[in-house]
Structure formats: C-alpha cells, structure tokens
Specification:
heterodimer, A: alpha+beta, five-stranded antiparallel β-sheet, 12 strands, elongated, B: 243 residues, Immunoglobulin-like
Chain lengths: 199, 243
C-alpha cells in the first residue's frame, strides 16, 4: 500500500480540522459563543450578594424581571429584577421622561419569618413613615438624575431561609427636593413591585 | 501531467468540502438569525392580527370572586389564557398565562377597561413558584388592577383586559451590541446618543438630535429603539355580572 506524502497528510489534516471547526460553529450560534467568552463567574450567591452591585459581582449573566409596577401617572416605574445565577434581587427605577422631579431612589428589601434584612447605610428621604416600618436595603439616591436616567439598587438575597421563601420587594421613588436627603415637596411618587402578592 | 491532475482533484475535493461545511454552518445559523431579526426590527409582528375580527376575543365567561375559569386568545401562534379573576375590593387581580416570543426577559404590557372606562393597571408579578419561568416559553402573571375603579362599589358589567404587547427589558448596563443596534435603528431619525456609566446607572447624552426634539423626546426614542416588541393584542372580555 502506497504511503501518503507529507503534503497529502497536511491537506487531509486541514480538511478534517476545517470540518470539525465548522461543525462546532454550526451548532453554536455566534451570540452564544460571544456570551460564553464574555461571561464572568459570579462572585456571590444569595446572602453574600447583599449590598453589592450586580455588575461588580458578575451576576448579570441571566437576569429576569419578576415584577413591574407603576406609580399614578406612571411617573416612576419600578422593576424587581433577579439574577438567576446569583439567586439575588435588586430594584430598578425608571423615571417618566416628562416628569420634572429632580431626585429618584431605587431600593430593595428582603424579608423572611417577619425578619427583614437590610444592609444599606444610605439615608432615606425624610420624612418617610413607610421607611421606618419597613427597613429597606440597597438605597441608591442621586441628585438631579436628569431626564434620561435609569437607576438600580444593590442586591438583596433570594432563595429560602429555614425552608421559607424570602419575600423581596423593589421600590422606586421620584420627587422634588431642594435640600439633599429631604423631601421638600409633597409630591412624592413611588411604586413597588414584589415577588409575593401579599407583601 | 499525472501530478497536475492529482493536484487538481485534490483542490476540487477541498473546495467541495469547504462549501459543504460553510453551507452547514449557515443553515444552522439561519433559523436563529431569522428569529432575532423578526423582533429586532422593532416592528409589529402581530399587527395583522390586530385587524382581525373577533378571533382575539374568546367567549365570555361568568366570573365571581376567586372563581376559576379559562379563556384563551391566540395571535400569531402565541396563546394567552386567563386563569383566574379575583375581585377582592382591596386588590382586584387577574391571572394570565401566556406564551412569550422567545426564551428572553419579555415584559408584558397590559391595559384594561371596566364598563368602558379605563382601569389603572398597577403592575404585574411573575407567578413562578418553581423558579424556572425564565427558561420556559409559557409564563404566568398576576395582573394587579386599581381598586379605585373596581373596588369601591358593587362590581357588575364587563371587564376588558388586554395584553397589548411584549417588550424586552433593557439591561442595567447597556452592552455594546445593543447600543449599536439602537443606533442603527435611529440612523434615519437624526438622533445620536452616548451612554455614560455612573454608579448604579447610566446617563444618556445626545450629541446630535433634531432641533424640534427635547431631551425627553430623544430619550423616549432611544429607549424604544433599545427594545424589541411583539404586539398582540390578546384581548379578554370578562362578564362580571353575578349569576
């Protein structure tokens, strides 16, 4: 039997390699390949995510919107967002572009067995009776957010504690203020979205 | 001569194999590409169905507080079903299960009327006890209606609930490919935008926009361009008269 020359072997090797590579690519769409290359390993899970930014902890790989709610006149729409990879939640607030309020806030809260946990040290707007009844976490407040801002809070934990599913809520605020951290106008609009209808 | 012929045959085999493998790759990509382009164009996938006659409105069914019943509506192969109406005066709700266009983070957008008057839709919540909804193409939602119109007096008449359309959520940090897609969609509008990362958010800057556009107008156009939308509507007529 005739032995293949080096050149023939090279050609056959090239053909086989091309076939294997193209077959793999054929069943792996480019966007999946790209996301695999770009994805990061999550750096936290449930309770260890508390108080952290979803992007800093690389929890953005698989995000779901669990609930959506709007304030009267839709001045602020709040989304309860979940990282399926980190099993954590956060709040996202979107201000209606035509609303002229110059402050907004995005908060998240987790509760289980009537025990609510929060990690934030950011002061809430004052006065806010509702705040003192329910400790919220992940406050993010910004002055003069402008018309085009979308804000999100730090994360709170998902999952269960002692077999009880954590109830999680997101809350968004828009309001007008002339003094930092104080509401100086009675027109405060807020909406909250939760993972439990009874929350 | 013989060597030349062998070389020619070898090259023909190589070229044929390459063509076959490229065709394989392209054919495997095509269905996905089509699926993306159908919704990424931001066009109304279900506009024709919106013009259809009563095919969206399924038979009326009696409803009372907490009573289970089923109504279905199908548009362009996507089916939505009312599973339950709860006329709790403090928190009236309707449960709906619906096919979503793809396995992505689609947000349903609802509207409602009660005896011809608009009813506020306060929001919705994903019903997902098994935490697997994000992987499924049929998802259930609890739609929360305003109690101002429905909760303050004896309820009777007709509630019309519409799942108007689905839209994709916008990521907290916009990826470059989504920014590029939105810019492409806006290329004829005279709007250009940039995003500026700030802690826990992004600001939008408009280096170019038509003189007649305010920043609010431009922002609205940009957010629309960032979303894919699939329109219904999936409409349900619910008879609220107590029988």
């Amino acid at each position: 039997m005739k032995t293949l020359s080096y050149k023939s072997k090279t050609i056959i090797f090239t053909i086989i390699t091309s076939l294997i590579v193209s077959s793999v690519m054929a069943f792996e769409p480019t966007n999946v390949l790209a996301s695999k290359l770009a994805s990061h390993t999550p750096l936290c899970s449930t309770t260890s995510c508390r108080g952290h930014d979803v992007y800093v902890k690389h929890c953005e790989g698989s995000i779901s919107t669990i609930a959506q709610a709007s304030s009267p006149n839709s001045y602020v729409t709040t989304y309860l967002r979940k990282s399926n990879t980190c099993n954590s939640f956060w709040s996202r607030a979107v201000k209606l572009s035509s609303y002229s309020g110059n402050w907004m806030l995005s908060e998240a809260l987790e509760c289980a067995n009537n025990n609510c946990i929060y990690t934030s040290t950011t002061p809430p707007p004052n006065p806010s009776a509702y705040y003192y009844y329910y400790p919220w976490s992940g406050n993010q407040q910004t002055p003069a957010p402008g018309q085009s801002s979308l804000w999100y809070s730090d994360m709170v934990a998902g999952g269960t504690v002692g077999g009880v599913v954590r109830k999680v809520c997101a809350r968004g605020w828009v309001y007008t203020s002339n003094v930092a951290n104080y509401v100086t106008n009675s027109l405060v609009y807020k909406s909250w979205a939760c993972n439990d209808p009874g929350t | 001569m013989k060597t030349s012929r062998s070389r020619l045959i070898s090259w023909m085999i190589i070229i044929t194999l390459m063509v076959v493998s490229i065709s394989l790759s392209v054919s495997a990509w095509l269905p996905i590409s089509r699926g993306v382009s159908a919704s990424s164009a931001g066009e109304s996938v279900g506009l024709d169905s919106r013009l259809a006659d009563s095919s969206n409105v399924v038979k009326e069914a009696p409803a009372s507080s907490g009573e289970n019943f089923v109504m279905k509506s199908s548009v362009n192969g996507l089916t939505a079903e009312v599973a339950q109406v709860d006329l709790n005066p403090d928190a009236p709700t309707v449960s709906i299960c619906a096919d979503v266009p793809t396995i992505a983070d689609w947000l349903p957008q609802f509207s409602a009327t009660y005896n011809g008057q608009p009813v506020g839709v306060m929001g919705w919540m994903l019903l997902d006890p098994s935490n697997t909804a994000y992987q499924e193409k049929n998802r259930c939602y609890l739609v929360m209606l305003s109690s101002e119109q429905l909760g303050s007096k004896k309820i009777s008449g007709t509630l019309i609930l519409s799942l108007d359309y689905f839209e994709t959520s916008i990521p907290e940090r916009l990826p470059v490919d989504l920014i590029a897609k939105a810019k492409e969609r806006l290329k004829d509008s005279g709007i250009d935008f940039e995003v500026q990362n700030v802690p826990h958010g992004q600001n939008f800057i408009f280096p170019k926009k038509p003189d007649s556009y305010s920043d609010e107008d431009a922002f609205q156009r940009v957010t629309d361009a960032l979303k894919d939308k699939v329109y219904g509507p999936w409409v349900f007529t619910i008879d609220l008269n107590q029988k």
